[in-house]
Structures are given as C-alpha cells and as structure tokens.
Amino acid sequence: MIESKAQLDEAAARIAALKEEIGRVIVGQQAVVEQLLWCLLAGGHALLEGIPGLGKTMLIRTVADCISLQFSRIQFTPDLMPSDITGTTLIDFGTLGAAAHRFQAGPIFGNLVLADEINRATPKTQSALLEAMQEGTVTAGGETHQLPKPFFVLATQNPIEQEGTYPLPEAQLDRFLLKIGVDYPSREELKQIVLRTTSITQPKVSVVLSAAELMDLQMSAKQILVADEVLDLAVKVVMMSHAGEPDAPEEVKRYVRFGAGPRAVQAIIAVSKVRALSAGRLHISWNDIRQTALPVLRHRLVLSYEAQAMGISSDQMSEAILTAVEAAR
C-alpha cells in the first residue's frame, strides 16, 4: 500500500528489478515484457500472438519463476475436453466398499496458467475458461471451487496457421485484458539469442517477488489517482471506437462494425495506473492512456469485411481514434 513518496518509489523500484531479472533470460522484446507486467500488476489475463519460436512460452515461464508463482501449462489440442482443464469428480471406494465423491482438480488450479495455442481447442473446450477467467472459480459436479490467488491466464496463439484452429469468440476475447503482439527479434537480438541458447551455461533467474508481494503491488496500483479530465479522455477513446458515434473518425465509421465495450475503459484505466506506478507517479496522464490503448483495443474492435479484404488492422483504427482524441483535447 502507498502511504508516502518513499513507498511509491520502492514500488517502482521493485517493478524495475522484476523487469531487469526477466531480461537475464529474455533477449529484447522490451515492449512485450512491459505489457505483460502491466497485465499481471493490473490483475488481468493476456493473449500473446506471434509465430512459433519467438519465445512466448519461455517468457511466461520466466515470469512465473521470477515471481514464485505456481506455474501450470495446458497444451490446447482439438481433442482436449473441458474436464481436462477444470478437473473432474471421481468416485473413491473405501475399505468397506463405501463410495464417496472427490473432486480432482485440473491444471487450471494454478497461479499462472499457460494456455498454449488456445485457438487449437474446440469452442466447447475454450468455454471452460470463461468462468475461471471472469469469476476466479470452477463449477463441477454442482459444486463451486475457488481458484488460488493470484490467478492469471496467459494464452498464446499462432496468427498464420488456420487449419485445425477455432477462432476465439468475442465474449472470450473480451475477457483478456490485453492482446500483446510478439514480433521478430532484430539482427543483434537474434545473435544474442543464439549465443545464450548454444553455450554451456544457460542464464537462470532468481525470485524477485513472492505472490503476496505481487498482490501488494496490485493494491498499490489501484491507489493511483485518476483526474476527471483524464477519465473523460479514456471514455472518449472507447466511445469513438463505435461507428455510430458522431465524433468517430471517418475510418472508424467506414471500417469498424462493432466497437469496444465497457471492459475496454476499465482495462485502459487499470493498465494506465500500473504504468504510472512503474514510473513512480501517483496519477495517470494522457500519455499513459495513449500507450495502453493499443493492446487494450487490439482484440476488441470487430472490423468490416471490406477492412479485412484491404488488410486494415485494428491497430490502425486505434491509432486513428487516438489521433482524433488528441487533436480534440
């Protein structure tokens, strides 16, 4: 909890130390690491999208090692069943033949759950995550089981492979706080990756935060202040993502079928608070909103068929919205 400037600086220093420790294993990808930490410190879930081999799984595992979280990995495949994720009720026969029901928890019962290649599972299996991601609970056999805290789902998906995949429904996409794009490393970063992974000694990370300390930072982030005019700007960004809004940019009116919902405003403010905390500030600014809006809106805008045919991305629409809001300030 933040009660003084010294505590604010200490929180920022702990976040910086965590980022530095992750950098001992992960080469480059500073924006990806930063956005992933935004998500964790805001208490949300993240969807990482990138082609195979870019280190998405290693990044998630490294974060779990740095924060001393119980790590659980689920490899999504077309034959995966919901009970393979949530768990199932078993029948135990005692020594006298008496039968008793016992719930066997699935891999979803972890602090940090990696849903690898989430779009390979069928919609029925994907839906098993909805209650867990929103409520933090699992219902099985008529009983509701509480998931451990903190609880995060970090999912990955491959954007270029289409065979054997099932696009995530909008309702599930909306439950991800951020969608983080993982890009190719630069030439120098690629050289560093090769040197680190082909040498005798492999870099290892140390525990920087405990789960309790992470939750303490989450509470500290919630104490960051939001001025009314800054909140109005965040609301305006989301409202202008709707084609029916009078102030919406012409690109949005032409290419966006459905804009972002209320969760987008909540996400922008929550993540902006984390960004301000990381910088040692007690209040968020327009620049925080501008930097966090792209990963928040990336998976929440439904584009028209015309936009998809022309190769227009949701990031381009988000940039048009932010430019319009900035011009109207």
Walk me through what this model shows.
It is a single chain. By secondary structure, the chain is α/β, with parallel strands linked by helices. It is 47% helix and 16% strand. The protein is built from 15 helices and eleven strands. The protein has helices spanning 5-22, 30-41, 56-67, 82-86, 123-126, 128-135, 170-173, 187-197, 211-222, 228-239, 250-255, 262-278, 286-297, 305-309, 314-328, and strands spanning 46-49, 71-75, 87-93, 99-105, 112-116, 137-140, 143-146, 152-157, 178-181, 256-258, 302-303. The strands form four sheets. Strands 2-5-8-1-9 form a five-stranded parallel beta sheet. α10 (228-239) packs parallel to α13. The radius of gyration is 21 Å and the shape is globular.
What's the story with the biggest beta sheet?
5 strands, parallel
End-to-end Cα distance, whole Å, is 33 Å
The poorly predicted ranges are none
Counting DSSP H or I runs of 4 or more residues, the number of helices is: 15
State the total count of DSSP E strands: 11
Spatial shape: globular
Helix content: 40-55%
Strand order of the largest sheet: 2-5-8-1-9
Q: Quote the average pLDDT.
A: 85
Reading the helices and strands in chain order gives HHEHEHEEEHHEEEHEHHHHEHHEHH
Structural class: alpha/beta
SSE blueprint and pairings:
Elements: H1 5-22, H2 30-41, E1 46-49, H3 56-67, E2 71-75, H4 82-86, E3 87-93, E4 99-105, E5 112-116, H5 123-126, H6 128-135, E6 137-140, E7 143-146, E8 152-157, H7 170-173, E9 178-181, H8 187-197, H9 211-222, H10 228-239, H11 250-255, E10 256-258, H12 262-278, H13 286-297, E11 302-303, H14 305-309, H15 314-328
Parallel strand pairs: 1-8, 1-9, 2-5, 5-8
Antiparallel strand pairs: 3-4, 6-7, 10-11
Helix pairs in contact: 9-12, 10-12, 10-13, 12-13, 13-15
